[in-house]
Amino acid sequence: MLYKFLWRNLKGYRLLVLLAVLITVTQVFCDICGAFPLKFIPSKVQNAGNDPSCTFPFLNPILDKFDIPQIDPSLQPLAPGQPPQPPGLTQCPISPSDPHPHLVTSHHTTNGVIVFSLLVLIVFGILNALLIYLDLYLAAKIAQSLTARLRNQLFDHLQRLSLDWHGKQKKGDLVNRITSNIADIEKLVTDGLVDLMAGVLTLVGVIVVMLIFSPPYTLIALALAPALFLTTLLYTRNIRAAAKRASKATGQVSDVATEDINALTVIKVFTREERESMRFGNYVDLNRKASLRAGGLQAQFTPLVGLLVALGTATVLGVGGYVAAGNTFNLGFFTIAPLSVDIGTLVLFMTFLNLLYQPMRDLSKLATLSSTATAGAERIQEVLDQAPEVLESQAPYHGPTRLRGDISFENVFFGYVSERPVLKGINLQLPIGRKVALVGLSGGGKTTLVKMIPRFYEVAQGSVRIDGVDNRQYPLTVLRQNVSMVLQDSVLFEGTIAENIAIGKPGAAPQEIMDAAMKANIHHAILNELGGYERLVREQGKDLSGGQRQRIAIARAILRDAPILILDEPTAALDVEAEAEVMRALDQLIVGRTVIMISHRLSTLGNVDEIIVLKDGQIAERGNYRELKQAGGVFASLLQEQNRYNQEAALSNRLRFGQKGIPHGSTSIHQPATPQPERTHLHLAAGHCQCKYTVVYGPGHCSPDRCAPTSPAPDYCTGYSLTRRPGTCQ
Ligand SMILES: Nc1ncnc2c1ncn2[C@@H]1O[C@H](COP(=O)(O)OP(=O)(O)O)[C@@H](O)[C@H]1O
Ligand SMILES: [Mg+2]
């Protein structure tokens, strides 16, 4: 699975991979060749007949070049002008185990062999260094390209997946897939491509060469290898498991820290500091224990490997030296003939042994790497395999890109999970320019209903039509460009305030942005309170007040100028004063559009054409304020409930402030209400102060002298937004 995944995603880099493999093969070859001089010199020095050309006859012409008087003075010509002396003939050692020995001679000088060997050592050393550089660089290049490609692809795909799918995922988990899972794959490619290949090649190459020199000596040299391999495998596995637990605990530590730091206010309010410290401490403790176990195992593992390597070296050195000294080594049916190993071979085997240990360690490390990378690849592929959002219609679209805003729901059924329907047969016609309010108990499916319009979710049954056409027939971009939404809590993006407004219409001119801000009632606030249009927004706009964020969102929507406007409790999170400002901004926004407004505050529903009451996923009643109130149904009872609350609040307010009204600089409860609104500036009877603004709804029900909290609350006017600010008194 992993290799298929890599193969598929390395498209365009496959040639590079092939090149890297070829370089690795060459590099390992150089590595092994570079070890031979370590044999040549001691062998030649110990026995002049034991020449490199005995084993490798093809070296004869090369070695001849080194048999010159400048290197070996004994070759000086007898008289000047004569050719140099030829080096004396020597006899190559005869393998004691060879049943048909034949005489081979060699004729190179010791000095020549030494200089030649040193040159070979240096040349292969340089070659090796160059190739390793190339190899690592290529691996890094491939890995980085792969990582960048996977990240972009995954992120792109994530944005295309439906909200339905996203609703079922954990955010942290998705971020994890983009960052650390991809990093795991990257690690496998950088470390694995070079180390794994080079490791396997070195193991095979070295063992083959050793076998050529002396099979029995090879077996002795490798006797401890299985023990080493097993130890490595075992320890690595345990260390990996402990490290995994430790990293999980680290994740928990950071989760708790993030959660608590974000909720510091709540923690202080409920004085939970100690409890939270304890909870945090528990995770820290878990982390400490798991990390300690990993560290402890590592502490055992390193010296254990060192010990095994030392034992292996001792065996090779002991047996080699014993045989080189002319003894026969006997161990059961295992015999090494005397002199079949000389000092040169011994040194070569020692070098090879060192070459072998590293790949063994690498290979067990790679087992870990590839298992995490496989898991990572599976998690990435899982996301990539998700079909992108609601399927786009295949038919080419030739219709208008700006819709008019006629909406109709026809027998719409929908549920987030199929066994629990949220919308149960919605039928609703909204002609162009109609403004309706959607009310109902929390969880009744209001938000769900409006999400069907821009096709955030697919209806299970029935259809949603815009301008008479099923919304599944529009390309998603066309459909969504025609729907504006202002939600309960608007999110701002990193960037300036101007950029945030311009999201509604990319490339909008500064003047357009400013016009929109003026209509949204935020222009002055931007200039005076926020520090201008170029002010940078931080942390999704958390450094702005809720009302300011909402009004910026409204400016966005004004700029977007879509024919359909959805307001999902845009003022629910605001205080009274901010609500009044946002409501004023909304008044500008709703002009000339089809509007669906969801609101809990029934009192803000004064200026809609119709109120639609949703209950248990069905439309329970619809009509205007007065009709619904008189019908005595769901709406009336909702209203009654809110009125009772407001009266209680008004009463407690009166007790607090007395009959005289509201003290300077404070805001009384509450809010405007009722069907026919009427905007009035009122004078407070008691204080002769002008209210900054007051919204009073309902003909005749709120008279100026009632601006102070009254009891009982008048019929429609369940409360008022009254602000008496210092300085506005006349
Ligand atoms: N993303 C979601 N996944 C699963 N269930 C959801 C999701 N969003 C809302 N619901 C459920 O659907 C029902 C209606 O929710 P919603 O439309 O948000 O209600 P309202 O906006 O009227 O308060 C609720 O029972 C809620 O728990
Ligand atoms: Mg809702």
Features:
22 helices; 730 residues; disordered C terminus; Rossmann fold; four-stranded antiparallel beta sheet; binds magnesium ion; ABC transporter transmembrane region fold; single chain; alpha/beta; elongated; 3 domains; 53% helix; binds adenosine-5'-diphosphate; 18 strands
Q: Can you tell me about this structure?
A:
This protein has three domains: 371 residues, ABC transporter type 1, transmembrane domain (ABC transporter transmembrane region fold), CATH 1.20.1560; 230 residues, Rossmann fold; 63 residues, no CATH class. The two termini are 80 Å apart. It has a six-stranded mixed beta sheet. Strands 6-5-8-9 form a four-stranded antiparallel beta sheet, with no helix packed on it. Strands 1-2 form a two-stranded antiparallel sheet. The longest helix has 52 residues. Strand 3 and strand 4 form a beta hairpin. Helix content is 53%, strand content 11%. By secondary structure, the protein is an alpha/beta fold. It is built from 22 helices and 18 strands. Helix 2 packs antiparallel against helix 6. Magnesium ion (MG) binds next to helix 14. The site of magnesium ion has 3 residues, from helix 14.
